[in-house]
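Anyone able to model this chain together with dinuclear copper ion?
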Amino acid sequence: MLLDVYQDVIWWSVGIFVVVEALLLFAVLRFRRRPDDTGMPDQVHGHTALEVGWTLIPAAILFFIAIPTVRTIFQLQGAPPDPDPLEITVIGHQWWWEFRYPELGIVTANELHVPVGRTASLTLTSADVIHSFWVPQIGGKRDLNPGSENRLWFTPTEPGVYHGQCAELCGTSHANMRMRLFVDDSASFADWSAAMRSPAVPDSAGAMTFLISGCAACHTIAGTPAQGKVGPDLTSVGSRTTLASSMIPNTPEMMAAWLRSPDSVKPGAQMPDLNLDEQRIADLVGFLEGLR
Ligand code: CUA
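re: yes, here you go
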C-alpha cells in the first residue's frame, strides 16, 4: 500500500520532470541571444497570469499527492482486511519492546514471532515516552504514544528474520532499542507458541537466586512467584536468540556480562547493577538459559 503511493508519486514526478525540462529546453533554444540582439529582453515582472499560474500549479500538485497519502494513512490505521488477524499488542519501553498475544496468552519481549501468510494486527502503545515501531523490510513505521493506541498491520509473505529498530529518539539507549521479527512457517510458529505456553522452569539454585536477589521485583517468569511488571517478561528467555533488546547474542557469556553490569552493555539501561557475585551470576545464567 505504501509502495503504491510511492510508485504513483514517482510517476507523477517523472511526468512533471519531463514537462519542466521540455519547457526549459524550449525557452533556452527559442529565446537564446542571437547575434543581432542588442537591447534587453522583454521583462515579465508583475505578469499576473504567470504569477497566478506558478502558484496554483504547484498547489494543485501538492493537493493531488496529499489525497492518496492521507487516504493511505487512514487505511493503515484502520482494521485489516483479513477477518481473522493475529492480534498483537506492542508496548514500547525505555529501551525494549513488549509483545503480548492476547488470544494465545503469550507475553514476550524484543523478539516478535508471526506466522507467514496470516495478517498480523498490531496495537501499539507506550509505557513511558514516544517510541516508533519500524521493521524496514515489512514497510511502515508507526509511533507508540503513551496513553493512546495506534494500529499497524501487515501480512508477511517470506519466512525469515527481519531486523527492527526504534525510530523515534527516546533517550540514552534509543539507538540500542532494536528488535527481531521472526516470520515463521506455520509449523514452526505452532511449535514456538506451544513452547511459550508451557514453559519449562528448571528447579535449580538459580531459581532461588532469581527470587532472592531482586530480579523478581521487575521480571515475570510464568509458573513462578516472579511476577514483576517493570522489565521484560523472562518466560522462555533461554529460547531467545538475543538479549538486551536484540543488542547482544544470547550466550552464557553475554548473559553473564549483562548481569554483571547492565549499564556497560547498554548505556542508560533501567536494569540496576545488583552487585551480584560471580557465584550468583553463574547460578542465574544457568537458570535463565534453561528457561525454554
Ligand atoms: Cu524507543 Cu527510540
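Helices lie at 2-30, 48-77, 186-197, 205-212, 252-260, 262-265, 278-289.
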